[in-house]
Design a protein that fits this description.
With about 280 residues, this protein is α+β, with helices and mostly antiparallel strands. The chain has 2 domains: about 120 residues, 3-Layer(bba) Sandwich (FAD/NAD(P)-binding domain); about 110 residues. The strands form 3 sheets. Strands 5, 6, 7, 8, 9 and 10 form a 6-stranded antiparallel sheet that branches. A 3-stranded antiparallel sheet has the order 1-2-3, with no helix packed on it. The longest helix is centred in the N-terminal third of the chain and has 14 residues. It is globular. The model has no long low-confidence stretch (mean pLDDT about 90).
Length: about 280
């Protein structure tokens, strides 16, 4: 247990802060869904097409950095022929609503991560538990999820990913595992209600993010593949990606090749191992 420099991130506040810092530094924020990224063969410039729900529009750029998250291969943002060796899996969560009495008792609960190093598949006992947090609906929820990804399922298509998010229903096995872990860590837990939540986690063969160029001209780059840890490292991943795009020096302790993007379909040593749960926490 880490009693100092440990905790959790509020993803909404994290993204809000990063966007505000970007705008304050001169960035222009344009809201919309990217529907296509393609290179103009005549000018060599990239054309990025958006749709904001009402209208479509296009932006042209000499360089493009794609930070499209776990569903990079399913969104249409990656140009044809540039699919990545990136697999996406379900990330089930349970949210236990806490009443006033429970809040007083659990307010000082630290963030808990259990690590079960044994390769026991769905019987693996790794999980994380986040103390009560106030959600946008005004209620307080204690959240739990799988630490080494037991009872996961791969999302192979955009349709499967959309359905997973839209239904917000996890499987019976996933709910059973998370309930057992919550009651193991907090005996006597008596939530007011229980909500299911669906997120996703991606995996790269190296288990490191992809930060690098996709084309020989070094005009198309990516920063994707958080391997379940993208949020906590997003500031540094973004800094490194910016240096790569702008041609700055690589000043990270690990070699730049460690983060080189790998194309989909490229055979890799130990592929079966990296895709078999439990994935591990690193």
């Amino acid at each position: 247990m880490e009693r100092k420099s440990a905790g959790y991130l509020n993803p909404r506040q994290l993204v809000r802060a990063q966007l505000e810092l970007a705008v304050a530094s001169g960035a222009r924020r344009v809201r919309g869904t990217v529907t296509e990224v393609r290179r103009d063969g005549r000018t060599g410039r990239w054309k990025v097409s958006f749709h904001d729900g009402r209208n479509g529009f296009r932006v042209e750029a000499g360089k493009v950095l794609l930070a499209t998250g776990s569903l990079a291969n399913h969104t249409g943002a990656l140009p044809a022929g540039h699919a990545l060796d990136l697999r996406t899996f379900t990330e089930p969560n349970l949210l236990f609503e806490v009443d006033e009495d429970g809040l007083d008792r659990l307010r000082c609960l630290p963030t808990v991560v259990t690590i079960d190093p044994e390769d026991t598949g769905n019987d693996n006992l790794s999980a994380y538990l986040i103390p009560p947090v106030r959600y946008p609906d005004g209620r307080w929820y204690l959240r739990t999820g799988p630490g080494m990804q037991p009872v996961v399922r791969e999302l192979r298509t955009a349709g499967e990913a959309r359905a997973w998010y839209a239904r917000q229903r996890i499987t019976r096995d996933q709910a059973g595992f998370l309930t057992r872990m919550a009651r193991l860590l907090l005996p006597g837990l008596a939530p007011v209600s229980v909500r299911e939540a669906c997120c996703v986690v991606d995996k790269t063969p190296s288990r490191y993010p992809y930060i690098g160029h996709l084309d020989a001209e070094r005009t198309l780059s990516v920063a994707v593949g958080g391997n379940g840890h993208g949020a906590r490292g997003s500031d540094e991943i973004g800094r490194l990606a910016a240096a790569v795009v702008l041609g700055g020096p690589w000043d990270f302790p690990l070699p730049q090749e460690t983060f080189a993007p790998a194309a989909a379909g490229r055979a890799r040593c130990g592929e079966a191992g990296y895709l078999r749960p439990p994935f591990g926490l690193c």
